[in-house]
């Protein structure tokens, strides 16, 4: 052991040297490996870092792709558009999530395939879908189609499918990709639109920017007499031509979006034209701007408008121009006369006693008579003259380019002669006459249509005043009278408000005692220039001007107030105008209420002519007044043709004997007979008789002998203001005392009932 150790120790240096020789290169190698290992470690770190970066970038790309796919899926969901893709080699099909929802299938519940797609298609559309895809495959083209699908729950939807094939370098299809949109709501909306479009109340077409019809409803097709296929693509200008020199009317909305309405002419298949009203509405679509055109056949509207225009300007009975149209033509004629310097004239024609035809035969007979007379009047005038009917039995003729007044007179005379010829109406012959007034217009520059008509009317009234069937020419004298008439009319307007009216009263007395039994009130007008004017000068003018109702009511109220103060019976004369125009009962009622007068103290006086003006109207109005308790008196009795039956029905309280009979009592036996007859008529009616115009004692005595106990006239009292008459009323008598013979005569005559009194606001009598 020790030897061995010693031996080892001896060999130790050599071993170390050898070991050093051995280890020296090994150290070098070891150093080299260390360096190598260090490089490998560094490379490994770099690789690891690079790999991490790649993984991070890849993850980011995956995240972005996922985000894009999510956004795409969300966009597809919002738009109801799904996508699909079919690779042919290897064969692989993919559907988007939205496509699954559209088809009503759960993702993963089946494997997407062309066969599965066909199963989703509605059986009624399946063959068409397959044919479309196969044709597109064969042609390597894109395609689109609208078809129905059936979901597993049976719900049917409509989809719009669009697709295209992707080919390789050799033209072989390698991939099919496309989209599928659920357009059910859009299709339903379009169907509703089409129904509304078809059910539109008016014919409607849709026109493109080139003026071609893209769409039309059935009413439009019927309007033009064409079928749907004939309208589609047709130029709208062929059906509704644009007026010459104008821009195409269907482009109007492009310039002005105010939806203009146009009046044009339409043309049917047979070439006939008709008026059409066109309304335009611009439409903005994805295919560009369209125009909705609503069409209305306005033939009936135009005809109705023409009819209304004709009726507004023509007399419906005779077909002649009416007052409006004649006025227009007269104004135009005056304008032409001012330029040419030629004279013109107007003839105013009024039929005499035409009212009797209406009253005796009825208004239908009167209308037939006017219709039969019209052709005769037209034949009597010159060519180019205008004959018009102003109303009632009034006609007027416009004569232009007259050479003289005699030419106008000749026209007027022919018109009068034409009216005179007998006319057969309803099997009876009628003979009339006509009064005509002629006015010449020598200076058209100073004339007006209203003035010419007024002058012609005045000439006609002058002719009528001279007798029936006459012709009169408007001259300076007539002009003066007309100017006076106009002045009176203007003065009357506002006379009540200015306090210019006054009532005078004339007593009615007992002939035997001279006792005042009643008063008659007479209207007077204190003109600021002309002084006191009596009613004979202004009442007729007031009637024609429509002022008599105002004057009459004022007089009624004032007279009732005075009568209430006197407590004396009174009466009021009423004209035919007031009686037949209505409103008289209301005026009487207001007067009684304002005055507090007992109705039994008031009577109304009416002439026989007023009762005959319009018998039925008068009867109805007077019966209403009688129910108020107001009495009635017939004035100027014996000068007309009163119906005793009407007098009895109206309950007349008194008859006023006309003054002409009183004046003739001493010399005319007929007058005496009439007075006796009137008294005899009054007795069975329970009425009294009042004699008007008693001026002498002899007249009073004769009246008393014939049984007339009441009188009125200058013998007893003249009309006077209320203050003057009051004294006579207080004394209970008026005028001279009766003679003894009168007293004896009247004592032998008895009368039943108390005397009716009258407050007569006389518009015609003094």
Poorly predicted segments: 1-52, 737-766
- The beta-strand count equals 27
- Please compute the radius of gyration using only Cα atoms: 58 Å
Structural class estimated from helices and strands: alpha+beta
The major beta sheet can be summarized as: 8 strands, mixed, barrel
Q: Looking at the structure, what is the overall shape?
A: elongated
What is the spatial order of strands in the main beta sheet? 18-19-21-22-23-24-25-26
> Helix count, per DSSP?
28
Quaternary assembly: single chain
What is the CA-CA span between the terminal residues? 199 Å
Q: What proportion of the residues is helical, as a percent range?
A: 40-55%
Instruction: Please state the average pLDDT score.
Output: 80
| Proportion of beta-strand residues | 15-25%
Account of the protein in words:
There is one protein chain. This protein is 48% helix and 24% strand. With 766 residues, the chain is α+β, with helices and mostly antiparallel strands. The protein has an eight-stranded mixed beta barrel, surrounded by five helices. It starts with a helix and ends in a 19-residue tail after the last helix.
Quick tags:
five-stranded antiparallel β-sheet, alpha+beta, 48% helix, 766 residues, elongated
Topology of this structure?
Blueprint: H1 2-79, E1 81-88, E2 91-95, H2 97-103, H3 114-120, H4 123-139, E3 143-150, E4 156-167, E5 173-182, H5 184-199, E6 204-207, E7 213-216, H6 218-224, H7 228-231, H8 236-239, H9 252-255, E8 261-267, E9 273-285, E10 288-297, H10 299-313, H11 323-340, E11 343-352, H12 354-361, H13 363-380, E12 386-391, E13 394-402, H14 405-420, E14 423-425, E15 428-430, E16 433-441, H15 449-465, E17 471-473, H16 476-492, E18 501-510, E19 516-527, E20 531-533, H17 539-544, H18 548-566, E21 570-574, H19 576-580, H20 584-595, E22 602-607, H21 608-613, H22 615-627, E23 631-637, H23 644-650, E24 654-657, H24 659-663, H25 669-685, E25 688-692, H26 697-705, E26 710-712, E27 720-721, H27 722-731, H28 740-747
Parallel strand pairs: 16-17, 19-21, 21-22, 22-23, 23-24, 24-25, 25-26
Antiparallel strand pairs: 1-2, 1-5, 3-4, 4-5, 6-7, 6-10, 8-9, 9-10, 11-13, 11-16, 12-13, 14-15, 18-19, 18-26, 18-27, 19-20
Helix pairs in contact: 12-13, 13-14, 18-20, 26-28
């Amino acid at each position: 052991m020790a030897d061995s150790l010693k031996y080892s120790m001896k060999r130790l240096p050599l071993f170390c040297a050898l070991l050093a020789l051995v280890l020296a290169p090994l150290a070098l190698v070891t150093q080299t490996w260390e360096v190598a290992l260090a490089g490998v470690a560094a490379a490994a770190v770099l690789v690891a870092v690079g790999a991490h970066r790649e993984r991070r970038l890849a993850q980011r790309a995956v995240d972005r792709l996922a985000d894009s796919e999510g956004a795409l899926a969300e966009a597809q969901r919002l738009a109801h558009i799904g996508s699909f893709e079919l690779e042919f080699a290897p064969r692989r099909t993919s559907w988007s999530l939205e496509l699954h929802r559209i088809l009503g299938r759960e993702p993963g519940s089946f494997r997407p395939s062309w066969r599965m797609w066909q199963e989703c298609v509605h059986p009624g559309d399946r063959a068409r879908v397959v044919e479309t895809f196969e044709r597109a495959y064969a042609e390597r083209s894109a395609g689109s189609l609208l078809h129905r699908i059936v979901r597993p729950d049976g719900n049917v939807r409509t989809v719009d499918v669009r697709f295209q094939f992707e080919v390789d370098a050799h033209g072989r299809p390698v991939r099919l990709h496309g989209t599928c949109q659920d357009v059910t709501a859009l299709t339903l909306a379009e169907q509703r639109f089409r129904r509304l479009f078809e059910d539109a109340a008016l014919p409607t077409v849709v026109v493109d920017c080139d003026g071609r019809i893209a769409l039309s409803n059935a009413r439009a097709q019927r309007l033009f007499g064409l079928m749907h296929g004939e309208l589609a693509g047709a130029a709208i200008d062929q059906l509704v031509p644009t007026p010459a020199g104008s821009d195409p009317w269907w482009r109007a909305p492009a310039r002005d979006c105010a939806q203009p309405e146009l009046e044009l002419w339409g043309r049917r298949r047979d070439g006939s034209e008709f008026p059409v009203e066109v309304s335009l509405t611009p439409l903005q679509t994805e295919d560009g701007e369209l125009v909705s055109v609503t069409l209305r056949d306005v033939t009936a509207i135009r005809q109705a408008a023409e009819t209304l225009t004709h009726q507004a300007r023509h007399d419906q009975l005779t077909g002649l121009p009416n007052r409006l149209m004649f006025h227009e033509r007269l104004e135009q004629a005056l304008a032409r006369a001012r330029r040419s310097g030629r004279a013109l004239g107007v003839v105013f024609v009024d039929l005499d006693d035409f009212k009797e035809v209406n009253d005796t035969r009825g208004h239908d007979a009167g209308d037939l008579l006017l219709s039969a007379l019209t052709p005769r009047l037209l034949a009597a005038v010159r060519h180019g003259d205008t004959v018009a009917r102003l109303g009632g039995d009034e006609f007027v003729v416009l004569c232009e380019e007259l050479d003289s007044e005699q030419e106008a007179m000749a026209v007027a005379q022919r018109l009068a002669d034409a009216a005179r010829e007998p006319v057969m109406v309803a099997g009876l012959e009628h003979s009339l006459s006509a009064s005509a007034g002629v006015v010449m217009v020598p200076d058209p520059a100073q004339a007006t249509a209203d003035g010419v008509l007024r002058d012609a009317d005045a000439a006609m009234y002058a002719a009528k005043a001279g007798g029936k069937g006459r012709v009169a020419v408007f001259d300076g004298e007539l002009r003066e009278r007309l100017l006076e008439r106009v002045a009176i009319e203007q003065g009357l307007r506002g006379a009540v408000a200015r306090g210019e009216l006054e009532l005078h009263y004339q007593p009615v007395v007992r002939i035997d005692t001279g006792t005042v039994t009643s008063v008659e009130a007479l209207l007077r007008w204190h003109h600021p220039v002309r002084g006191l004017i009596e009613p004979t000068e202004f009442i007729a003018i007031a009637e024609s001007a429509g002022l008599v109702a105002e004057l009459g009511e004022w007089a009624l109220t004032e007279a009732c107030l005075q009568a209430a103060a006197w407590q004396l019976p009174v009466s009021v004369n009423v004209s035919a105008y007031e009686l037949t125009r209505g409103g008289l009962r209301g005026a009487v009622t207001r007067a009684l209420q304002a005055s507090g007068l007992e109705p039994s103290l008031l009577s109304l006086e009416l002439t026989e002519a007023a009762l005959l003006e319009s018998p039925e109207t008068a009867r109805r109005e007077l019966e209403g007044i009688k129910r108020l308790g107001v009495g009635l008196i017939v004035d100027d009795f014996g000068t007309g043709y009163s119906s005793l039956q009407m007098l009895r029905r109206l309950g007349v309280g008194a008859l006023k004997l006309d003054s002409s009979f009183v004046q003739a009592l001493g010399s005319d036996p007929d007058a005496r007979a009439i007075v006796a007859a009137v008294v005899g008529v009054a007795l069975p009616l329970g009425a009294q008789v009042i004699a008007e115009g008693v001026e002498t004692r002899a007249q009073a005595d004769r009246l008393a002998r014939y049984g007339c106990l009441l009188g009125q006239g200058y013998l007893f009292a003249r009309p006077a203001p209320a203050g003057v008459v009051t004294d006579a009323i207080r004394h209970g008598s008026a005028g001279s005392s009766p003679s003894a013979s009168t007293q004896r005569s009247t004592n032998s005559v008895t009368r039943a009932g108390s005397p009716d009194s009258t407050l007569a606001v006389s518009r015609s009598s003094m």
